[in-house]
Amino acid sequence: MTDLSQLQEQADAELAAVADEAGLEAWRIKYLSRKGLLPQAVDRLGALPREERAAYGKAVNVLKQSVQSAYEARVAALHEASLAAELTAEGLDVTLPGRRPQVGRLHPTSRILRDVYSIFAHMGFQIYTGVDVESDLNNFQLLNMPEGHPARDMWDTFYTLTPGVLLRTHTSPGQIRVMHGHAPEPIRVILPGKCYRYEQVTARSEMMFYQVEGLAVGENITFGDLKGTLVAFADQLFGEGRRLRFRCSHFPFTEPSAEVDVDCIICGGKGCRVCKYTGWLEILGCGMVHPVVLRNGGYDPERFSGYAFGMGPERIAMLRHGIDDIRYFYNNDVRFLEQFA
Ligand code: DAH
Predict the structure, then answer these.
(1) Given CA atoms 162, 165, 168, 169 in this order, what sign does their dihedral have?
(2) Contact 230, 120 (CB under 8 A)
(3) Are 113 and 210 in contact (CB under 8 A)?
(4) pLDDT tens per residue, range 257-274
């Protein structure tokens, strides 16, 4: 019996000294495994004289249970301790302020485009899109610029390896697409989209930019309608009372043609760096659709007339926000983009 109480003491002391999982496993093998000290103590029962067996059996059972439950308690305690150690080591401080997720916002071009859409939609224009990869036919020929026409030099062009296929240099080829789809119905549409030019990239010109084309075709459409529409547009986009100036110009697909300036938003027309001291900022090109273009689109120019215009939304955004370099738009620098909430 003293053997048993010694064994108990020894097992308890060693168990209390165990510091980690490895030590605990060694302890378990020493005492509880099949050939361990406890099973050995149980086995000794068979070698005892009969009269001692009952008492020994009882005592060894009590010992076994006590050692087993001490072991289980130690397992749980060690597990808890290692969990607590892990938690302090990883140092999760739940009182720190959270990291605010970045919220996206609309690109300045998209914002202008949406304003433009809404203004023209209220005037009864539908929104169409053309295609970025266009035919030479739509981009030039049907717009009254046959092959070799010197006016083509106004648009430095990205050609593809497929003859007759190019990246559109303006949204005007969309005019042909819409006319082909609608002739001889009247048309009132705007056509937003990207354009591409094989140009040196500078503060004033990008290789890729947006345009919004406008086209109205019907009977009795006059230059007065064009003016009225553009004045109403500018009033809404820039605020009531802006002065517009229609300057004579030339485009092969309109006759007559004009360029439209708005009085400089920055200096109010007095003259500054942004307007190059002229007091005016150019915002679009326009004119009455050339009879050849009407015919190419499937409309009889004897009966139908129309006006068209093309504007650059980045230029408008630059005027509105006083941005002095168009390259900011597509550099994807969040420091720039974040300013337009
Ligand atoms: N397509 C011209 C350009 O890219 C702009 C333009 C001028 C469009 C006159 C028109 C227009 O529809 O009538 O420079």
Answers:
(1) positive
(2) no
(3) yes
(4) 999 999 887 787 888 877
pLDDT tens across 104-157, in order? 889 999 999 999 999 999 999 999 999 999 999 999 999 999 999 999 999 999
Q: Nearest CA to 215 among 307, 132, 297, 317?
A: 307
Does residue 227 have a pLDDT over 70? yes
Q: Is 173 in the pocket of ligand 1 (CB under 6 A)?
A: no
Mutate to test the pocket of ligand 1, among 286, 307, 316 (most ligand atoms within 8 A of CB): 286
Q: What percent of the chain has pLDDT over 70?
A: 99
Percent of the chain with pLDDT over 90: 56
Q: Is the dihedral of CA 236, 203, 168, 227 positive or negative?
A: positive
* CA gap 294, 179 in Å, rounded: 8
- SS3 label, residue 131: coil
Residue 131, CA atoms < 13 Å, CB-side half-sphere: 10
Q: Is the CB of 130 under 6 A from ligand 1?
A: no
Of 237, 167, 247, the C-alpha closest to 208 is 167
Q: Which two tokens stand for residue 250?
A: 């030339």
Could you tell which of 153, 253, 290, 314 is best to mutate to test the pocket of ligand 1, judged by most ligand atoms within 8 Å of the CB?
A: 253
34 and 93 in contact (C-beta within 8 Å)?
no
